[in-house]
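User: Hi! I'm working on a homework problem where we have to compare a predicted structure to a textbook description. Could you give me the structure for the chain below?
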Amino acid sequence: MSEKLIEGEKKYRPNVAAVIVSSEYPFKCKIFIAQRSDIEDAWQFPQGGIDEGESPSEALLRELKEEIGTKKIEIIAEYPNWLSYDFPNKIAKKMYPYDGQKQKYFLVRLKKSAKLNIKTKHPEFTDYKFIDAQEVLKHITHFKKPVYKKVLEYFKKEGYL
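Assistant: Happy to help. Predicted structure tokens:
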């Protein structure tokens, strides 16, 4: 994976994101969201950059271990395309030279043996919860909603959610 993906004049950081369902899936469909530690009242799915030489699935496992303390998951499905979004100005300054992120989304199920721990070496989250799929967009920060909506609708249309 190259360090940056360029679309037009914009630079997008290659990234993975996980729509995590609890270990009770498919009997109960509860989705994991976490509250960011650096932006007040901003909830999101775990996500992170893809390092040089890493595949998206390798990055997914590494990021989950770094952000929620476990990589004990099973991949159920993958969104078929890369999706991108632009950072709001305030965040763009912090993420320079990137204008946004280009993401590969995975639907994953926690294994029963998974133990979540958001108090990791470099904590990105202060809290987490499992909620119904139809509740997710009510909690998500504004600039990510269009991408989350596409991803959740796709997994629902495919019969996963």
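For your comparison, note the following. DSSP finds four helices and nine strands in the chain. Residues 5-157 form a domain with the Nucleoside Triphosphate Pyrophosphohydrolase fold (CATH 3.90.79.10). Good luck with the assignment!
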